[in-house]
Design brief:
The complex is a heterodimer of chains A (524) and B (172). Chain A is α/β, with parallel strands linked by helices. Chain A has 13 helices and 19 strands. In chain A, strands 1, 2, 7, 8, 9, 10 and 19 form a seven-stranded mixed beta sheet that branches. In chain A, strands 6, 11, 12, 13, 14, 17 and 18 form a seven-stranded antiparallel beta sheet that branches. In chain A, 58% of the residues are buried. Chain B contains eight helices and no strands. The longest helix of chain B has 18 residues. The N terminus of chain B is likely disordered. The chains are: A alpha/beta (524), B mainly alpha (172). At the A-B interface, helix 2, helix 10 and helix 11 of A face helix 3, helix 4, helix 7 and helix 8 of B.
Chain lengths: 524, 172
């Protein structure tokens, strides 16, 4: 046996579980498809990012290709990062807990389904995840669910433009509060305070939490965790007993290798997890591993969103930090959740074009161009909106055998659409955002087209019933006793909050369960 | 578009002979770095585009760094830069960089080599390629650099870390 636990994926879920298990003396091997991105290279990555390149992009051709169908195309390129640390390498760092009602939308509103666990079940794990990631926040959100602990770090102060938004929101009776985030407002856990580099897609100081900094070094320091980078899992092999025996993986040389373990965890995100299950067919599982329910890949969800901007008279001084500091969760928990999607308002600190953006779209040159850039810069305020999305069985991840990736493996095919529920939510959100912008004197109010967040959820949902879910409340696959399915694929509903903190809390909880089971605790 | 096609199109549209260029350019020459003369032509072009004034030494260095990075990032940029430099010099009948600023500007406008808001039929072919790819690229390179941020009064900007409290107040 190569390991007690083989974790496929070294991102938020996998990295956290590796540390939790390694600390308990459990031998772990992590297979991570991407490379180790050397922290010393972050300066060079920043320069590439500023040239509109994606420094996190895989060097292996076609590894992030997908196909799609439906009225909308959900493309993965740029929406995930491969590497030790996973998508936390490039995430925005926003760490909201899901609201307690998000776990009970069927009971409360008669829509979708309830989770098999409640907010109360998850609350202690949220608290631990916040400490591990270093979440900065303030208890000023009237729509937050009860907390057993304070935030580990003080909130980032409101920005200059937040002050403008606050005035308008006050007039309209809309709450504005701090946006919790895993970013160091003060030095924390050996990492520096944020230095306002404004390139959070690549944080050059390490002030933004990412798993390669917050968890991987500590996991490896236990002596129990080994991370194989550039090792892409191709499939899992199971035996007649229905248990997984090996992960088959390949490195860039494309040579297949096997890794055996007592327990396996898939932690590759809500696209690759179902893809790997569907690729792991056997006589026991002719429709894909852990797929006796036929639900693997189904109920794919994201966060549909729009951005509303308006022109203002005075300069709002954008692009001085790379993240937002204020939000409103008022419409995420109140209102007609049965009739339309709940939504978050994020008050942007940087909206409108950069000097470069103004220059290249102006059609001007010379002194006229300079004057145009000087006059127009900083004159737009913006509000970003993300809404909840109902689980829809037609939104699903499947395999496309006609298109193959670097390893010759069928790429994921994503069938995706946004329904009336979400569009009605966004329409309402747009009205709210427009009213805020008009109240603070905004003109030329514009709304972007529909876009989807880089959040993928719900393709191997958890539940009590093996007929209606893929994994149990501890993330163990119903059909395969030594297989766990971590990450946002297990979400039953999407909430309108970013998923990462919930991924982290569930990962800590699942690791606790695995450790107890491996120790032979009778209650598991 | 291959370099040969680019030259033929240019010769047709602007009626400038592509003297000295054979049908099959030596492939090795295509990937040679830009010469100092070519760089000077591009910098002189950039001066017309971004401000009608000579660029200070740091700005020249930033733009050259931008050009170097673009050549690495985009396979066709070297050929585009090279063609732009060659076209500018040919149209000038001398190194473009030694022309007075006003003469450079006149040449650029006359041959439709820069972005414009004017509602008129635009010149196609190589002029279009220079206008859309090289001119816009140089403008982008300049305005993404510290000089571009200085135009809007920013001494600290994305990629240059600084004072965390700055974002909470108006810019001084």
């Amino acid at each position: 046996m190569d390991a007690d636990v083989c974790i496929v994926g070294g991102g938020a879920a996998g990295g956290i579980m590796a540390l939790e298990l390694g600390r308990r003396g459990i031998r772990v091997v992590v297979l991570e498809s991407g490379p180790r991105h050397d922290f010393a290279q972050r300066g060079a990555y920043v320069r590439r990012y500023l040239r509109h390149e994606d420094p996190w992009r895989s060097r292996l051709a076609g590894l992030d290709v997908n196909t799609g169908s439906g009225r909308l195309r959900y493309n993965l390129e740029g929406r995930r990062a491969r590497g030790v640390g996973g998508s936390t390498l490039h995430w925005e760092g926003y760490t909201l807990r899901f609201h307690e009602s998000d776990f009970r939308v069927r009971s409360l509103h008669g829509i979708a389904d309830d989770w098999p666990i409640s907010y109360v079940d998850l609350e202690p794990y949220y608290a631990r995840a916040e400490i591990a990631l270093g979440v900065a926040g303030a208890p000023d959100d009237p729509w937050a669910s009860p907390r057993s602990t304070g935030f580990p770090l003080p909130a980032f102060p409101f920005s200059h433009s937040d002050g403008m938004f606050a005035g308008a929101c006050g007039t309209l009776g809309i709450g504005l509060h701090h946006l919790p985030q895993a970013r160091n407002s003060v030095p924390y856990d050996g990492r520096a305070q944020c230095k306002a580099c404004a390139t959070c897609h690549v944080c050059p100081t390490g002030a933004k939490a990412s798993i390669d900094l917050t968890h991987v070094p500590a996991a490896e320091a236990t002596g129990n965790v080994r991370i194989l980078s550039e090792a892409t899992a191709l499939r899992l092999e199971s035996d007649r007993s229905g248990e997984v025996r090996a992960a088959v993986y390949a490195q860039p040389d494309r040579v297949e290798r096997r890794l055996s373990a007592r327990t396996f965890v898939l932690a590759t995100g809500a696209i690759e997890n179902p893809r790997l299950l569907l690729l792991s067919k056997s006589s026991e599982f002719p429709d894909g591993l852990a797929n006796r329910s036929g639900l693997v890949g189904t109920f794919f969800m994201s966060h549909p969103g729009i951005e509303v901007t308006g022109r203002v008279k005075e300069n709002v001084y954008p692009y001085r930090i790379g993240f937002s500091t204020a939000m409103s969760r008022q419409f995420a928990t109140e209102g007609d959740r049965a009739g339309r999607a709940a939504f978050l308002l994020e008050f942007l600190n940087s909206a409108g074009p950069t000097p470069e953006g103004l220059a290249v779209t102006s059609g001007l040159t010379g002194e006229a161009l300079r004057e145009h850039v000087r006059r127009e810069f900083g004159r737009r305020l913006g509000i970003r909106i993300y809404c909840d999305q109902l689980p829809d069985q037609a939104n699903r991840v499947s395999l496309n055998p006609r298109v193959r990736d670097y390893f010759g493996t069928p790429v994921p095919h994503i069938g995706y659409q946004v329904g009336r529920y979400e569009r009605d939510g966004l329409d309402e959100a747009k009205r709210v955002a427009e009213s805020i912008l008009r109240t603070l004197g905004g003109t030329d109010i514009q709304s972007s087209g529909l876009s989807m967040a880089a959040h993928q959820m719900g393709t191997h949902r958890m539940g009590h019933d093996p007929k209606t879910s893929v994994a149990d409340p501890n993330l163990r696959a119903h059909d395969v006793p030594n297989l766990y399915l971590a990450g946002s694929g297990c979400f039953v509903t999407a909430s309108s909050s970013p998923p990462t903190l919930t991924i982290a809390a569930l990962a800590i909880r699942a690791a606790e369960h695995i450790a107890s089971r491996l120790r032979g605790d009778s209650k598991f | 578009m291959r370099r040969r096609d680019l030259l033929r199109t240019f010769a047709l549209v602007l009626a400038v002979p592509s003297a000295g260029v054979g049908d099959e350019p030596a492939p090795r020459a295509e990937r040679q770095p830009l010469s100092d003369t070519e760089k000077e032509a591009l910098l002189a072009f950039a001066e017309v585009l971004v401000g009608d004034r000579p660029l200070p030494v740091p700005a020249r260095a930033e733009l050259l760094s931008h050009i170097g990075a673009r050549v690495i990032a985009r396979e066709d940029m070297l050929a585009l830069y090279r063609e732009a430099a060659a076209v500018l010099d040919r149209l000038a009948g001398a190194p473009f960089s030694i022309l007075a600023m006003r003469d450079r500007r006149d040449l650029v406008v006359r041959h439709d080599l820069a972005p414009s808001r004017a509602r008129m039929p635009r010149t196609e072919g190589v002029a279009r390629a220079i206008r859309r790819h090289v001119a816009l690229d140089l403008i982008a390179g300049y305005y993404a650099s510290p000089m571009g941020w200085a135009v809007v009064g920013y001494g600290t900007f994305p990629g240059r870390c600084g004072d965390l409290g700055r974002y909470t107040r108006p810019e001084r």
